[in-house]
Amino acid sequence: MSALLKVSDLRVEYRGQPIVDGVDLALERGEAMGLAGESGCGKTTTALALMKLLPPALKQSGAVTLRPPGVEEPINVGRRTEAGMRRVRWRHVSLVFQGAMNSLDPVQRVDAQIAEAIRLHESAGAKEVRARIDELLTTVGLTPALGRRYAHQLSGGQRQRMMIALALACRPSLVIADEPTTALDVTIQAQVLQLLESLRERLGLALILISHDLGVLAETCDRIAIMYAGRIVETGPVSSVFEAPQHPYTKRLLDSLPVIGGPRALGDPIPGGPPDPGEMPEGCRFRPRCPYAADRCLSDPALRETSAGHASACHFAPWSEWPAAAGAGSLEAG
Amino acid sequence: MSGEQAGAAVEVLAQPEFGDEPGTVRELLLGTWRGRFGLAVVALFAFMALFGKAIAPYPPDASSLDVLAPPSIHHLLGTTESGADVLSQVLVGARVSIVVGLAAAAISAVLGSTVGLVGGYFGGWTDRGLDALENWFLVIPTLPLMIVLARLLNPSLTVLIAVIGLTSWAGTGRIVRAQVLTLRERAFVERARALGAGDGYIIRKHILPNTLPLIFANTVLIVAVAILSEAALSFLGLGDPTRISWGTMLENAFESGAPSAQAWWYVIPPGLCITVLVLAISILGYLFEEHVNPRLREHG
Amino acid sequence: MSGRWLAGKVAAALLTFAFVLVFNFFLFRVMGDPTTQLARLPQATPEELQQLRHNYGLDKPLMGQFVDYVGDTGRLDLGLSQRSRQPVWSEIKDALPWTLLLVGTGTLLATVIGSWLGVVAATRRGKRTDDGLLGFSLFTYAAPEYWIGIILILVFAVWIPIFPSGLQVTPGVQFSGFFSNAWDVAKHLVLPATAMTLMLLGQYFLIMRSSMVDVLTEDFITVKRATGLPWERVVRRHAVPNALLPLVTLSAIQFGAVVGGAITIETIFSWPGLGELSFQAINDKDFPVLEGTFLVFSAGVILANLLADCLYFYLDPRVQSR
Amino acid sequence: MRLKRVWTVTGLLVATVALGVGVASAGGASGSKQGDSILKIGWAQNPSTINPYVGQDEEAFSIWAINWDLLVNFSPKDLSPTPGIAESWDISDDKKTVTFHLDPNAKWSDGQPITSEDVKYSLEVLGSKGALFTSYTDNITSIETPNADTVVIHTKRPDARIVGGLFIYILPKHVWGKVPVGDLTGSYKPELPLVGSGPFIVTDFEPNRITKMEKNPNFRGPEPKFDEIQFIRYGNQDAAERALQVGEVDMVPEVSAAGFARLGDQPNIETLRASSPAYTQMAFNSCSTKICPDAQYNPAIQDLAVRQATAYAVDRERINQIAARDTSFEAHGMLPSFYKSFYEVPADDYPYDPEKAKQILDDAGWQDNGDSPRTKGGQELKFNLYVRSESPYDIQAAKLVAEQAKAVGIEYDVQVVSTDKLYDLTVRKVNGKPAPDYDTFIWGWGGDPYDPSFLLSVLTTGEIGGSSDSYYSNPTYDRLFKQQAGSFDTAQRKGIIQRMVALTQHDLPYLVITYDPNLEAYRTDRVANVEPTCPEDSTGDAICDQTSYEPLLTIAPGSSSGESGGGGSGIAIAVVAVVVVGVGAFFVIRARRRRDSEPLELDE
Questions:
Q1: For the whole prediction, is pTM greater than 0.95?
Q2: Residue C84: is its pLDDT beyond 60?
Q3: Given a cut of 90, is residue A38 above it in pLDDT?
Q4: HEC string of D332-373?
Q5: CATH homologous superfamily of domain D69-197?
Q6: Per-residue pLDDT, A87
Q7: Which residues form the domain of A98?
Q8: Distance, in angstroms, between A55 CA and closest chain D CA?
Q9: Is the minimum CB–CB distance between B254 and chain D shorter than 8 Å?
Q10: Mean pLDDT across chain D, nearest whole number?
Q11: Does residue C148 register a pLDDT over 90?
Q12: Which among A163, A178, D84, D336 could disulfide-bond with D73, CB atoms 3.0 to 4.6 Å apart, if both were Cys?
């Protein structure tokens, strides 16, 4: 069964400096993929690249192919012109942003914005569009009357739900959600995630959920990919990645997660910060901050399968257990 | 372009893409092409103001027989309606325009900052009264007000400076007042007051030093406005009749029928000097303002 | 709820106009005592001077004079012009439509062209067109408007004589109908309106450009593009309306300068508006007329600011619900 | 959709502007019938009012001179007295009573008969209350009107001005008499048409724009060739001259010195340099310490040698060339050459002779200090020279005088002041006594068309405290002034006036620099058979502005007069059309080209 989305060697450069440096991804229909990593690691850029929404200053290369249901030959995003892409956007792939407050045109009523999206891709009569909007609003748990309001007249949660309604307006097969819940408080966050989950089952929707919050990804995604400095350093089913992380960066990320019920201490943060695209470290990008770094790490680590569907870009993978932070290069894992 | 316009322009032009990294003032001035352009033009006109009279090929008002003559080797910019040399008049005219600009801006800076400081610091009725006065100055169209004042007193250079100075301080006053209001609540002011420091001391030692850069930046903009105002008043015949300034040159050109005689060499230079000088000063003003007032960078 | 916001604005405007009245009174009556001007007439004997001070009411206490002043202004009785002895208000009434016509056209053109150029520049930031437009508007923004006017006369009325350079209508011609008259006025309006437009253009351009730059960085622009909307429609239907809002408020600051421009531009084009009337009054030291035009100018600026607020209120839903 | 609102708002704005055009332009639509031949005169300023009791503008006189007659008009040939309202007159032997006979069937423009009552009313009421008419009737004791066609005027002393110098317009009593005098000098607005006796009467007056005068049906003289005259205001001199060049107007009665030469060499424009009863003079403070104890001046200015040396040092010819571009007339003494019947070049005329000037100063003991001013016994030849800021010509002349006087060792420090300031300096009073505060100044005087009495009066002792600004007081001069005022015989009067001029040339209270010209220009294709008149010689005037309406009866429409030049508007329409089409095309192309272009530059 061919994958809904296939991304191979995706690169994005800004004035010669790599922001996304060779990303490979695959997504099945109805599957939820999490994309995690510190801010500035290229998550959002990758997402926008999938829909060719990057500003011209950013040069994009690599193959992105979409096989939405009901479309015979695959859509090769890389070669599509702007006009070509316009027919794909929102029809097959739609987007939900983090701050819903300024994702909606402040001077246009929300229902008009949804109608605009629908009418772009389908020639539908006013009455039919009206019905579609009411149906969309009820599916996301909002009363149709709210449609007559402006963005600033809705609460945070309502606005995010409105964004989701907008994202579903043209019945896409893939929704990319970039930090959809970060701006919301915890209770509403749970409701929105729960909504996304139910919509996936009911509509067979594929989802790419981008977040720096591993907890959120754990709850909602089937598989997860950890990005660092423009590359995927580990990918695999959520359960195996969480139980047996195969990359030091993932390990440290998991360690910094506060465990509910566990000791009330702050997780120890990873020293240093993501490298500047201008001065990328040689070989493995994580080397400068990796406690287990060794000479081998000077060469580029490839993404290697360590178990079924679980791959890691660390020379020393697979890691059976994680010794205390020994001196660099002292340990040769089996 | 009037006082309040200058303020708005600051808001507008201080865009992120306008200011590169706001390093030291020196970097700001020499680093960006805007800084270099502004500095070069201002330096040129300052030179004209200081040495204009000396380097002028002819005495500015020496008349001759060849009237409204086009540019030639002995009159590089042609002659005026009374046969005087346009180039000499432009060179000498710089002094009046710049002197009036600086002096009027100084008055407005002093006046504006005192009102701002007193109003902002003491608040209460004085503040509300001064604010009402500021409000009136900001609402009243400045040129008619200047015209009325200049007409009530006999036109002369000092009257011109006073009139422009008195009508363009409201902008500075408002900005200073806002700054003082924020400073007043600051911890170090509270601490100073707690240590028994008197108001005078606090203003002098804490409030003033912090607002000086702001006053300076805003004053630079007022200089541009003052130069334009002097030119406008002189053009309307309210300038100082005894001295030559770019404004009076334009007035004489217009009155003597230069446009009908297509004497472009008489009409263009004075106006061009005003425009380029005002442009340069405004650009420098925006650079200082943005350097001093980072809050402006996020555009409110 | 929106009514309250509007009422607040109107009240503020009236309060400001009250200030204007107070300051005007002191400015003119106290400083420019009209009788000192009259004393200069050859046959003014001391008794006549006394008589004049009486019928100007200048021998009453200051407060009494002020009450008279406010009463008179309320009844639009702004005194008599010293030169023509006609009521100041009748002269202002004749001149007002011409100033409105000139300022109206100038502001309208400057807004439309200025903001359009602003959008063009914002969507081509960093490229040559952006720098070119920026240079042009900064230049016209700094240039004295009467200098621009003189050059317009020199080029378009003398060198290539295609537009009339003076007056508001070809004098004394008998027009067959409204349209031929309006056409003639339009022809006379071209140069002064161009000067006024060039003067105001820069400010609108700068405001619109920076406001557009802000709006284009908003997320909803990316979302609109993501929905498959063509780029110009994203700019025209979503970016521009949002960018227009600050244009309305920030341009209200312009009105003070517009009045100044009216005076100088009307003078060089002999456009019979309020500006030229006040210039005339300057030369004749005709204080009642000067005072009258000054009052109307200030009222105009206050009214214009109020209109700008209402326009903003009408355009921006966020304000209405506050 | 929000955007729709934006467009509705802009639409609204456009509508108001269009309405403005309509409202504003509707105002100017009144005017003459088709096919009328119109004489269009363009000038810088329109009179602010045509009410003779209040008007003070020079332009108002141009209108009044056409609308009404004087009792005795001026002949355009040599400005001597000719019949006006009075057909004939006879002077009593003792020359103190003059009887005027009116034309019995003369009528006002509204058909009412012109009677002696009108004359009596005008001389008594306008003569005493009119802003600029009060100085003519001080010598009249009584005016009798035995019947409708005779007026008898009695005067204290014989006064030649009664015949040919009584510059008071005769108004219709039945119109002006009904209005209380308080209103006349207040805000009274004369009804139109302005009932008058001249060839044209005012039918439309818009202070800031235009004054229209149409033919007077009851005019007693020949019918003028033009049906209508329009005086059009252009706001400034240059705009009026441009209008003449473009053909919007047919004549400009007052051309600037700057524009005179330029208009001269235009193809179908004729320029006229007419003499006028006005001059520009340099005045020396001549007030004796007795009359002005507290006056402020450098006493050396009253040393005759200094004044005469200055006169020789000043090259009046060169000042005329540079300051007035050779458009003024050379001045010889304080009586302008305009007064043909009384003018002669005076004996000592002070030709330009710097050597003689130095000689005079040396003889008078003023020690020559090379560049710095001459000195003698603690006194220094250093004087202030005030000049009005409003007159570029005066400023230019003052600078030239200073330049030339410096060469002979007299320093004049030129100080430019406003007219009001100069007026205050000259009429300054200290505890009731005149105390002028100046050494010298440059200003000018303008006299009446025929009778030189007013000009001569400014140097009489009687006028000190009145219009005298030099405070010159010479009993012989005063006596001669009274004599000439009373003499009706022009030859005898000329002799007396010449002796007065000789006196002033010797004492030099005034050094007259130039006689001011009347510069006129008209389009030869619009105005035909124009002969210089007032006076009729090479220095004649085209329409005897403010003096006599008779030239208006002879000049006729030229070959292509009538509607204003249409040429200009044709091109204008084409240009506007091109602009509109261009902008439209630009948008269309832009829209099509942009259909599938790349998304535009977003910031990084």
A1: no
A2: yes
A3: no
A4: CCCCCCCCHHHCCCCCCCCCCCHHHHHHHHHHCCCEEECCEE
A5: Dipeptide-binding Protein; Domain 1 (3.90.76.10)
A6: 83
A7: 30-54+77-227
A8: 6
A9: yes
A10: 82
A11: yes
A12: D84
Cβ atoms of residues B124 and B131 within 8 Å: no
Helix, strand or coil, per DSSP, at residue D561: coil
Phi, psi (deg, nearest 5) at residue D327: -95, -15
In this complex, whether C and B touch, counting 3 or more CB pairs under 8 angstroms, is yes
Q: What is the pLDDT of residue C87?
A: 85
d(CA C53, CA C69): 15
Segment D490-515 shows an average pLDDT of 90
Q: Nearest-CA neighbor of C12 among C245, C310, C321?
A: C310
Helix-strand-coil percent breakdown of chain C, rounded to 5?
80, 0, 20
Task: Report yes or no: D48 and C84 within 8 Å, Cβ to Cβ.
Answer: yes
- Contact assignment for C150 to B13 by CB distance below 8 Å: no
C59 at interface of A, judged by CB pairs closer than 8 A: no
User: How much is the pLDDT for C57?
Assistant: 65
Chains D and B make contact, 3+ CB pairs within 8 Å: yes
| pLDDT of the residue at D2 | 44
| Sign of the torsion angle spanned by Cα atoms A165, A170, A171, A174 | negative
Residue range(s) occupied by CATH 3.10.105.10 in chain D: 284-516
Q: Which among D185, D178, D205, D181 is positioned nearest to D194, based on CA atoms? A: D205
pLDDT band at B9 (very low <50, low <70, confident <90, very high): very low
Interchain contact, D416 vs B65, CB within 8 Å: no
Mean pLDDT computed over D10-14: 58
Amino acid at C220: F
Contact C226 A87 (CB under 8 A): no
CATH code that applies to domain D284-516: 3.10.105.10
| C231 touches D at CB < 8 Å | yes
φ, ψ for residue D186 (rounded to 5)?
A: -105, -125
Q: Does residue A199 lie within any of the structural domains?
A: yes
Distance CA(D322)–CA(D253), nearest Å, equals 23
Q: Show the tokens assigned to C311.
A: 């326009």
Number of domains in chain A: 2
For residue D265, give how far its alpha carbon lies from the nearest alpha carbon of chain B (Å): 12
Tell me the residues of chain A between 94 and 113 that have a Cβ less than 8 Å away from chain D: 107-108, 112
For chain B, the straight-line distance linking the first and the last C-alpha, in angstroms and rounded, comes to 22
Q: Do A57 and D601 touch (CB under 8 A)?
A: yes
Among B188-197, D299-308, D340-349, the range with the most confident prediction by mean pLDDT is D299-308
Tell me what pLDDT residue A332 has: 41
Q: What is the mean pLDDT of residues A261-286?
A: 72
Residue B1 has pLDDT above 50, yes or no: no
Q: pLDDT (tens digit, 9 = 90+) per residue, A122-131?
A: 888 888 888 9
CATH, domain range B24-48+85-299: 1.10.3720.10
pLDDT in tens, D52-105: 888 878 888 889 989 998 888 888 887 788 888 888 888 888 888 889 999 888
**Which has the closest alpha carbon to C267: D93, B29, A52, D235?**
D235
Partners for C (CB, 8 Å, 3+ pairs)? Answer: A, B, D
Tell me the average pLDDT across D163-188. Answer: 85
| Structural domains for chain C | 2-74 (no CATH), 97-320 (1.10.3720.10)
Contacts of D6 (CB under 8 A, 6+ apart): C241, C244, C315
Residue C159: closest C-alpha in chain B: B262
Q: Which amino acid is at C95?
A: A
Q: Which CATH class is domain D1-51+199-276+520-604?
A: alpha beta
Q: Could you tell me if D436 and D426 are in contact, meaning their C-beta atoms sit under 8 angstroms apart?
A: yes
**Chains A and C touch, using 3 or more CB pairs below 8 Å:** yes
* Residue D560: pLDDT over 50: yes
**What CA–CA distance (Å, rounded) separates C174 from D33?**
7
What gap in Å lies between CA B171 and CA B167, rounded to an integer? Answer: 10
